[in-house]
Amino acid sequence: MNSFTDLDAWKKARVLRNNIADLIKSFPLDEKYRLSDQIIRSSRSIGNNIAEGHGRFHYADAAKFLINARGSAAETIDHLIVTLDNNFIDERIFESFKENCEECMKLINGYVNYLRKQADNKTNP
To answer: Looking at beta carbons, which pairs linking 17-24 to residues 24 or more positions away fall under 8 Å?
Structure first.
């Protein structure tokens, strides 16, 4: 694997980020610098942290950024709950986006486990 863009976790985060960008276009204008800004930032942070983690040499450094990416996915779910509670989206849309965030989290977990195994193999040949 040569680039972070090859990672399934990053690809899924990219799709989520783009879907969030489309979703917020339907939010009220008075939310532009509040909820819209927050959900955009958290959804972007998922892929940003995956990319930064991929660029790190040591497992511990990479894992730190991947854990941040997972946290950003959870934060995005929380922002989606706010959008649901404020009736900006319906339950069906919420569930779809929540599932996408959770899929990102699963892929990130899988990548962390893969990196952990690689690090273990290097220290315990």
So the answer is: 17/43, 17/44, 17/46, 17/47, 19/97, 19/100, 20/76, 20/97, 23/83, 23/89, 23/93, 23/97
Residue keyed to tokens 């990102």 = 104
Q: What percent of the chain has pLDDT above 70?
A: 98
- Take residue 69 and report the two structure tokens written for it: 């990416």
Is the separation of the CB atoms in 65 and 53 below 8 Å? yes
The answer to whether the pTM exceeds 0.70 is yes
The separation between the first and the last C-alpha atoms of the chain, rounded to the nearest angstrom, is: 22
Going by C-beta distance under 8 Å and a sequence separation of 6 or more, which residues neighbour residue 9?
50, 69, 104, 107, 108, 110, 111
